[in-house]
TrEMBL record:
Domain of life: Eukaryota
Residue ranges occupied by any ABC transporter domain in the UniProt entry: 83-327
InterPro entries in the cross-refs: AAA+_ATPase, ABC2_TM, ABC_transporter-like_ATP-bd, ABC_transporter-like_CS, ABCG_dom, P-loop_NTPase, Plant_ABCG
Family: Belongs to the ABC transporter superfamily. ABCG family. Eye pigment precursor importer (TC 3.A.1.204) subfamily.
Database matches in SUPFAM superfamilies: P-loop containing nucleoside triphosphate hydrolases (SSF52540)
Record protein name field: ABC transporter domain-containing protein
Gene Ontology cellular component annotations, sorted alphabetically: membrane
Amino acid sequence: MPHTIETSPMVPRWTPSQTRDETNTNTPDYFPFGDSTAVPPPLHQRSINSTSRHSMEAVAITMPSRDAYKAQDSMRKDRGILLTWEDLCVSAVSGKGGNVSILSGLNGFARPGEILAIMGPSGCGKSTLLDTLAGRLGSGVSQTGDILLNGRRQKLVFGTSAYVTQDDVLMTTLTVREVVYYSAQLQLPDSMSLADKRKRAEETIDEMGLTGAANTRIGGWAHKGISGGQKRRVSICMEILTRPELLFLDEPTSGLDSAASYHVMSRIAKLARREGMTVVAAIHQPSSEVFELFHGLCLLAYGKTVYFGAAKDTSEFFASNGFPCPPLRNPSDHFLRTINKDFDKEENAEARTSNATQAIQHLVNSYKSSSHAQKVLQEIAEIRQVEGATVSKGGQASFLTQSLVLTRRSFVNMYRDLGYYWLRLAIYIALCICDGTIFYNIGHSYGSIQARGSMLMFVASFLTFMAIGGFPSFVEDMKVFQRERLNGHYGVGSFVISNSISAIPYLALISVIPGAIAYYLTGLQRSVDHFVYFALLLFMCMMLVEGLMMIVASIVPDFLMGIITGAGLQGVMMLSGGFFRLPNDLPKPVWRYPMYYISFHKYTFQGFYKNEFLGLTFPNNQAGGPPTLTGEEICRDIWEVEMHNKWIDLAILFGMVVLYRLLFFMIVKTTEKVKPMIKGWKFKGPKESTHDSNSGSSP
Ligand SMILES: Nc1ncnc2c1ncn2[C@@H]1O[C@H](COP(=O)(O)OP(=O)(O)OP(=O)(O)O)[C@@H](O)[C@H]1O
């Protein structure tokens, strides 16, 4: 290749290039963002204007022919993703109905094997840019402009991109090793052996310096586990397991000390180079060592580009615009300080404010007319011209594997999380002892008819109502699910199946042990088949309430609001279930039709009554009536239940269990599909962004 490189006579004050990575000593300096072991530089980066004041004049390179460029580019096509964005604008709806601009007219690109850092003062739009590029913008925000992958308008699919969010949403009950290993099993394809998946997980744990903490639980509010910085690294571990071609990192070093920050970023840089990964990282305050690892820098101030180009040339850009970095100051600190106007008023009254504002204005204008900005546009045009490979879906574990792994993970989590079932089991036992002793040995007198009804009503309503106790733990599960789902680790179907199956043993335990205490202390029908029906009905109701709470959680993700909503819904169902007001007395509109039939308590009451009363006879104390009352008469005339087979009630409840879970599935799926449509409809701009949202979601 006809590249010749000449060292610039201009020595920048801060020259990070040679120390970019320990494995990178042979990296030629011509590459705009530093090194490139695999990717050849595009044409414009070699057509350097020697009169430029900025760093690109530091090298003089012989231009290869366009054919050579195309040949190099075809090599590049097979290796990773070239991400470009052009004239990218993002705005949000303001309180008064207008639009507030968050990002305006951004251009840029990120290349395989490199790290592009997005920096700027807090609130400048780093996360928004990252979200936009990853196709994850939330509702209430609109975007315009072009985002291309390998010069094409195409969708990000599973296995091609991963996103490490600012928050570390992890399963608190699992150890670091378990979290990463389960994640490896969920994400890596079935064609990879379990041993290889374990090896990949161990390697990744090691890469992130977590070997020492591998057997420590993540921990949450109840148990102190690993530190915040270690959680950060676990989050990164999970997303780099598949070696995605495109990696988005939001504040990857927050919570890490400077040494850990350096090690984490250098491992990511190494991985990026080795695997041809394109890394885009929003970062707050990198140390000078970490800054040296960046190839490109996108410096934002209040939604505008202050600088986009090689990270190592930033100092020179600032210096040439009258803002040289003082000696002994970390350059990134200097850049951020120069363009932060948030605290100026407090710091130095009026004069300083106008200085910072002017500095930003000056730098933004200077950048716009600089060769850096021209080069970015040129680069984008080149990439557009030579359309690269289409992004294809990476291999992924099958639906069955995912369901099995998730079931195992969920089962372990439920076992270790005291609040999920164990606390409930204890409370249920206590309640059933209370229930059983209050109604102890109820007998077969006339008065026992009402007492039986009340006891069964308590079991059917309050014990099932208590199933909302596991809601906070479920909301935590949902957060993990939402994060993993957004990253396309698995589908909604696997989550629903795994959550349902893993809950069965615990709910069975809760139905049988406390149920037996209440049942036998009260002295209900002694035969085993009657008790089995009783326990099955209780179990089905708990499954049903859990399903109901899943639906609530998908709509109201806050656990306090969710508990209130769930309790309210159950209260309405209880009221219309036919006990507090007998079915024939229920007002016909709404309460009898349809609420009575929607309320699962109807079927529970009916099943319990038929199971208990049928086959028994009671003396009749009522004057003028027959001397005895049969169970059938009691069910039909006193409780006004429908006299079909009791197993039909159980079957209807089972159908409702399935229906509720299907509803949850459909709500999540519909939300995923409808949200972007509503967004598109709400913000019909002149030139909508062409990048697909919902990037990571698997089909
Ligand atoms: N959905 C939204 N509605 C209204 N304003 C929003 C929305 N999303 C972001 N913003 C605003 O856009 C600006 C940029 O937010 P963003 O989170 O991207 O900043 P950031 O640079 O990542 O900040 P930090 O470094 O503190 O995380 C902020 O002022 C924020 O309030």
